Every structure is written in structure tokens, then in C-alpha cells.
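**Polypeptide and fold**
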Amino acid sequence: MQVVIYHEVRLEALDKILREGIKRSDQGEKSDSVVQRTDECLESRISQDLAGKGLSRRRVVYGYLSSGDKLVDITSGEAVEVHSYSEQRDLILLRIRVDTSKCFVSDLDAYDAVKMCVESDADDTLLTRLAERYWARVAPLDEYDGSYRRPEVMVTSDVDAQDIEVV
């Protein structure tokens, strides 16, 4: 079954994406070194089971959940009207169709707990515990119950150009 999620890209990447689709990568729009270090921390602590399902902080397409004609903002957790959200951003918002079997939802509050510890150079025991908690809270989209305040979608496949629409 397919579902609509939203994804942001830089304007200079748009033409290529509309021709070739969106490829899973570890960079996306991330430029913050703390975010990159956090992703590395989580990546090094992922279970074999989740990795076997294609999950990774490095090789997924990130997106926003849709809620009718709204999207769930990952900063506030609020469902906001798509066009007003898009107008407030410097990035280009895309509506993408993806197979639900390739989608997982992560809890960004759990992610931020790991990020804070990475930033403060916490000890490895605490980082491992928080990373395990983060990965334990990752749920297949089909099973996600809507309980995360700030959900983020992770798509474990590339997105074909015909499944992409500029908002």
C-alpha cells in the first residue's frame, strides 16, 4: 500500500530529483556536525534485526508524516497546513508516494536525548542505553500508533521520480 509523506530539498537539487528521484543517502539536508556524530553513534549501535530491514540513519529518505491535507511538523509535533508550512521554509517541499512496507517512524524526542549526550561527550554506557531506547522506539509505519510527539519517517528505499510532486 502506498502513503503520502513530505520531504524537503534544496532548490538546486530539484531538477535532478525530478529527473532521477530521491536516493537514500546519509547527508540529506544535514550539515550540523553534532547531528552527523549523533547519527554515527546510533548507526554503530543498531541491532542486526533492524539493520536487516534496511534501517539506517545513513541510508534512508527522511520525511514528514501526512495527516489529511496537513503534515506533522517535526519541530513542534503539530499538524500544520502543507502550503503554509511550505511558504515559511527556504527548502522546497515535495509530496512523495512511498510503499508503507518500506517506512518506519522514529521518535525525535528519543533522538534528541542521544544528541544531547553526544554533544556533552557523555560516557559510552549512557550513549548505548539511549541508543538502544531510540532504536526500540522505531516502529514500522503500518504499526505506528501515533504516540510520538515528534515523529519522523524513515523510508528504506529510493523514491522514483514519478512518485514525486512539488508542493
Summary: The chain has one domain: 2-166. Residues 2-166 form one domain.
